Amino acid sequence: MREIGVRLALGADAGRVMSLLLGEGLRLAALGTVIGLGASFAIARLVIGVLPDAPAWDARVVGGAGIIMPAMAAAAAFVPARRASRVDPVVVLRSQ
Q1: How far from the centroid of its chain's Cα atoms is residue 18's Cα?
Q2: Prediction pTM value
Q3: DSSP result, 21-71
Q4: Are 5 and 93 in contact (CB under 8 A)?
Q5: pLDDT digit string, tens, across residues 34-56
Q6: Contact present, 25 and 76 (Cβ < 8 Å)
Q7: Which residues constitute the domain of residue 68?
Q8: How many degrees, rounded to 5, is the angle at CA 42 between CA 37 and CA 43?
Q9: pLDDT digit string (tens) for 6-35?
Q10: How many domains does the structure of the chain reveal?
């Protein structure tokens, strides 16, 4: 909160603070999604190698997960970002 207070005190507007925090959250979500999708492909190949009659990965499930996970991460990052963008810099800087 202190960093946000300093940014707001130095002239950053609420939209810029919000985009900064959302950007950080979405970058982490994108990285996690890429790693998760890569791991799912690797595990699917492993399962198919061990169990030849097992069905291959379902594109709808993998695609849905690739869309839903970043959307949920964006929703989860939005609330703290909005709260941080509404902080009064004077109160934050005085409290610490």
Answers
A1: 14
A2: 0.69
A3: HHHHHHHHHHHHHHHHHHHHHHHHHHHHHH-TTSPPPPHHHHHHHHHHHHH
A4: yes
A5: 998 889 888 888 888 888 777 77
A6: yes
A7: 2-95
A8: 95
A9: 888 888 888 888 888 899 989 998 899 899
A10: 1
